[in-house]
Amino acid sequence: MRLLACAEACDWVRFAIGGVALAIAGCAGSAIELAQNTSLQPAPVAPATSPEPTPRRIGSPYAYEWFVRAELYRAESKLGPALDAYRQALSSSDEDPHVLARYATALDEAGQTSRAHEAVTSAFAQAPYSESAWLARATIAERHGQLNEALEAYERAETSAPTSPRPPLALAALLDRRGNSERARAVLARYEARVLPGTSGAQRSRLRAAVAQGDGQAAYVEARAIAVLQVEDVPLVARAASLLLDHDRCGLALDLLELLGERPDAPLKLRALLACGRLGAAEQLLRMTDPEALGGLMAVGRAYLTIGRATEAVELAKAFLAIHPNDAQGTLLLAEAQLASGAFADAAETFASQVKGARTTEARAGLAKTLTAAGMPELAREVQAPPAAARSDQ
């Protein structure tokens, strides 16, 4: 809630500072680029003199309360309650275009694509130049692989709200995924030219560019500034933390994640804690978090094994195999956990069951390690040696 409120406050400040002059300049530049591409017809491009402000104002306290509930349900992947809450918000908000747009994307996530398109159309009917409606159209098109339509819709969202960071960031991300990093950088540079350098939107733009370029240090600087301000861009800050982990900068990554307070990416935070050797904190996170939120039983079992809690790892591996009885990775995790707990006979039997399977190399190495630990190094060497048929072929 506090992050959401801060994000909206920052949006209001950014719009007030940016002023109409910046909006006009941004609209004029984007309108020229879009003049030759008019395949989407439901709503005209916004005139340069009337951009929709970025702040998302919802009609009544009742509607706003239900909208917030919907967003929270959705963040927890509870689409059914989220859709019900969106409907409650719409029932008293005079069909607010932003609520309609968010409702549309939730409907699409729930597989109700035709109803999602109807909701977007209703949003355009209420506000023909709605940034939120164009973002919803782009998001739905992108989810269904209609990338050209998604690109155009993101561009029209950018034209509708020139000082909002959401359309250019989404547009740049899509261009990056399509391998057009040069155009993505141009989109970000164009956006930065429209806003003041110290605004949160400019920081988010620079962060997106740093992440795309793999510049861990620049990503850290921008992401830290964003996290301190508590701007609503958790996924982008998390991507910066992931980039830092890839560059073996676990301390900086953990710093970013801790600045996010109660909203970090749980698997990413676990990864950072393990990389930094913060085993006590990692164990606390494991015990306080549902396994599914950390990547599932296998991921949690592997983490317990990493922090030296072999008994817990054995139990989690067995629970996973009860659901997936023939899974090779789960079987190997069980064997490794049995070995770590000192159950050499059980570990040898479990490794041996995989010696002729899909994980032969790992199983043979694990069996040899188990035999060595059990005081049978000669037998371990025989296990590690290639089979006789393989030696005769060489």
Describe this structure in words.
By secondary structure, the protein is an all-alpha fold. It is 72% helix and 0% strand. The chain folds into 2 domains: 2-213, Serine Threonine Protein Phosphatase 5, Tetratricopeptide repeat (Alpha Horseshoe), CATH 1.25.40; 290-388, Serine Threonine Protein Phosphatase 5, Tetratricopeptide repeat (Alpha Horseshoe), CATH 1.25.40. The longest helix has 33 residues, at 2-34. It is elongated, with a radius of gyration of 26 Å. The N and C termini lie far apart (67 Å).
- Strands, count: 0
Beta fraction: under 5%
Query: Could you give a short account of the major beta sheet?
Result: none
Looking at the overall shape, the CATH architecture of the largest domain is Alpha Horseshoe
Write the H/E string, N to C: HHHHHHHHHHHHHHHHHHHHHH
Q: Which structural class matches the secondary elements?
A: mainly alpha
User: How many distinct domains?
Assistant: 2
Q: Please compute the radius of gyration using only Cα atoms.
A: 26 Å
